[in-house]
Amino acid sequence: MSPAHYLALSALLMCLGTAGVLLRRNAIIMFMSVELMLNAGNLALVTAARMHGNLDGQVFAFFAMVVAAAEVVVGLAIIMQIFRSRRSASIDDANLLKY
Amino acid sequence: MSIVFWVCATFAIVGGFGMIFSRKAVHSALWLALAMINLAVLYVSQNAEFLGIVQIVVYTGAVMMLFLFVLMIVGVDSSDSLVETIRGHRLATMLATTGFAAIVTVMVVQGVQTLAANDQPTGLDDANSAEGGNVGGIARLLFGRYVFAFEATSALLITAVLGAMVLAHRERFVPAKTQEMLSRERLGDPANAAGLPAPGVYARHNSVSTPALLPDGSVAENSIMDPLAERGVVDDISPYLSVTAAADAATAGEEEAK
């Protein structure tokens, strides 16, 4: 399978993730969409590694996974904290800094 | 390899669409898990065995389970309302996504054209066999050229753990109730001293989602668990009542006949 197919799949998943972040109002689902975008990026990195014949791309993807895991932990803790104070996980309700 | 790609790519895309469009957050999480498992297969099919396994263990195993745990804490009533809260939001989303897709498409097409100018992809067979396998090759890079980035990663992980602990910690403002206090509280209020009423038992239904009746025929609200009421799955008992009344009348008729 040529790398072009993988890159196209990666681009499509990235667009799906973007649409999810923009479309959904639930903070947790927005967060999942961000995860999908990170996965799309990882797929592109892995494809690039195969294209160029060295493993640096895979190491980059590995680091992206580590950062994503740390990000999920902190982000979900923040969402839980917001839910505790507002009883809602919708991002439209977190508007205390608006005015 | 071609079959693997088409099957897994299809499932990954279906998972992505399912995640965006499913109404309940739990369904979204499961769709995303499907997409991630298929991406793991795609990694393995591209000679990235280590990343494929890490993808399954870390993403579908740890991250998605963390999402599901948080959904269980947060999520009972967190299904999105499908009403547009901001006017023109969906239209703007569609436009922005289309624009982004156009940019990405141009990038991919350009990349593919330069790719076509070159030969076939180099492939990882040489790189993988140099250190006796994919894991060895990644380890050589990770603990060699990228060792400082790797060390920084450990600092990042420790910071994330501390941050999560600080953020998720809740200060207790009132002391926890002891068993004695709970017991006194319950007996001090004679209304429910014998416990809350059990769910209703009717001729055809005795599930926990059917409320009991009070002596005056009204519904006993506290015979239903709060989470069920929050989810809105409490049964309407009026159809059961007529069946129960009919069964009662039949029983009474039989007894009179005896």
General description of the model:
- The complex is a heterodimer of chains A (99) and B (258).
- Helices cover 79% and strands 0% of the residues of chain A.
- By secondary structure, chain A is mainly α.
- In chain A, helix 1 runs antiparallel to helix 2 (27-52) and helix 2 runs antiparallel to helix 3.
- Chain B has 258 residues and is an all-alpha fold.
- Chain B is built from ten helices and two strands, in the order ααααααααββαα.
- Chain B has helices at residues 2-21, 25-45, 49-74, 89-117, 125-130, 134-142, 147-168, 179-188, 226-231, 238-257; strands at residues 212-213, 219-220.
- Chain B has a two-stranded antiparallel ribbon with strand order 1-2.
- In chain B, helix 2 (25-45) runs antiparallel to helix 3.
- The longest helix of chain B is centred in the middle third of the chain and has 29 residues, at 89-117.
- The radius of gyration of chain B is 30 Å and the shape is elongated.
- The mean pLDDT of chain B is 85.
- At the A-B interface, helix 1, helix 2 and helix 3 of A face helix 1, helix 2, helix 3, helix 4 and helix 5 of B.
